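To whoever picks this up:

The parser on our side crashed when reading a file containing two proteins. I've narrowed it down to the boundary between the first structure block and the second sequence. Both blocks are reproduced below exactly, byte for byte. First block:
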Amino acid sequence: MKKHDHIMTLRVFSAGLEVVPTITSWYLSELGESKGRQELFTKQSPQRLKVLREHALIESAVSSNRIEGVTVEQQRIHTVVLGRANLHNRDEEEVRGYRNALKLIHEQSAKLPTSEDTIHKLHYLARGETGDAGLFKTKDGDIIEKYPDGRTRIRFKTVAATLTPSYIKQLTLLWSDSLQEHQIHPLIALAAFNLDFLCIHPFRDGNGRVSRLLMLLQLYQLGYEVGCYISIERIIEQNKERYYETLEQSSNGWHEGKHDPWPYINYVLFTLKTAYREFEDRVGQVTSPRGAKTELISNAINNSIINFRVADIQKQCPSVSVDMIRKVLKTLQAEGKVQCLGRGQSARWQKIQK
């Protein structure tokens, strides 16, 4: 290794891999098959795909921010993500900014290289275009874990602010080299890049969000389009504990090149596999004559515990209006599949078990 080369997972891998863990090979094989079937599924039911795209956009903007503690009131989500109305606060600016970054990737992924410029641009958008948006950190900052009782601990020492630009430059070069040299599977390279980016931690705030945007961009460029229809960010949020746990396992010893990257790499591959399974489940139900939004609501009701409220379904279907949810419930009530247990807006509903 040259004197100015920084230790990174992608550099360690660039020499080629002697052994790939068995579970990783399984994931790669399944994802290869999913990618092969992708075209078959994306040619079906344009209306359903349109609804899935809109739904994924909302879920991604909300989930990716919520992982970082940036939240928007439930009734404002649709307006903030899809509307043009004025925003109420900083959190809403960041959620809409993330939406703008997603839109850029969905529409222009072919023209956006994984470069330092793109990283700055995605951060600028995701941080709502204000403050230090688009700028690398100027002060060193470690990743601190806060406990409910107020105690804290340093979970990871990030790369020093003065070294950050050179680390990012090398990371993007290693990424383009890995794609040209074909020494490792591109999905392993993608997950390793993601791990290295999070360990460098180039920004004061917004690193997790930018890492997820870069993952989506790189997936597009590798021909894995599932993130257009299923929110990868929502799946990460649903498995948040595992995300933090594997990130900690794999970042331990990173500065010395003594880390084990496989727990985090397998987590990323597991997330993609989950997204593809969900995509095929949702698009594969082409036999249903009902509308795509009706189907989203029906799926949410089926996945609910026996007792639920309209607000519970709305949480699972942020792209669907309350009126639409009520309309579907009335239909299901007439079909004898659900019953209402009370009156008013917060009335509980119950699935009728047959």
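<<boundary where parser fails>>
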Amino acid sequence: MSEYILGIETSCDETSAAVVKGGVEALSNIVSSQIDIHQKYGGVVPEIASRRHIEAIIPVIEESLDKADISLDKIDGIAVTRGPGLVGALLVGVATAKSISFVKGVPLMGINHIESHIYANFLSNRNIPFPLVCLIVSGGHTDLVYMPEHGIYELLGKTRDDAAGEAFDKAARVLGWGYPGGPVIDRMAQKGDGSKIRFPRAFLESGSYDFSFSGLKTAVLKKAEQLDQDTNSAITYEDMAASFQDAVAEVLVRKTIAAAESKNVKSIIAAGGVAANSQLRASLEEEACKKGYYFHVPPLSLCTDNAAMVACLGHYKHKAGIFSGLDLNALPNYPLGK
């Protein structure tokens, strides 16, 4: 008999709740976004995000249950993001989940946000062959992780400065396109020519799977200043977006393929908000398939923060009997695998 897991996600600026059946069927996945609120500030303001979560969390949970056509009495477990993330935002979700767990007497599962992004893949395809390498790319994280089986992780590489998502946001700000940067750069890049500018690629020392995007961000800033002074330049901001996107995608793809070859894996998967980028998805799939790897990336709706991926991971923890106590607390710097 399949269990029903209620997932709750409040790590940053999305308030989300979902009901997932048997780890593979999302009966609901409600996301209340705060993008419109934070756009005028050019990024997420933690105090504002926390207050908005307090206002939205109960209505979002109720809508999720209504859409799934299920009551709390039928829920078999509650999975909630405990970190990493903004501590005030995390505490709203954790406190709510603990309250429901106590009142209804159902198991509570504290979830690592990065791990749940990985499990967005298994929500949409539970038959991905192990071992695998996962590229996790989001606003706050850029990691390469080796997984020999469920729940076992080896961090192969991470960003040494800006995460890929941060680089997209900062580049968009330089180009005057606002926040969030990822979607608008993806859209504008399709109107530009990526061969117009050769932005730097930071591959770091030989054999390293770490990432660095701060130099690329600086190069975009300098090029934008040059274009503003040269009114006769044939290069457009759309060309800059395409060239920037090319540089990010090339580094991410090459390092992911190198990591997969070094670990002799069967599959390559991707996760996180930047995994929604059209060029990264296409380039990674092309190179992975060319090398003979099984490739999977979640649908766009499961790349950004959502509670269905949290509930999916909750399914695997519930199945293994890995539960949290009511002393569960938010961990803003919660490391993967702990």
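After patching the parser it read the second block fine. Residues 243 and 334 are 34 Å apart (CA to CA). The mean pLDDT is 95.
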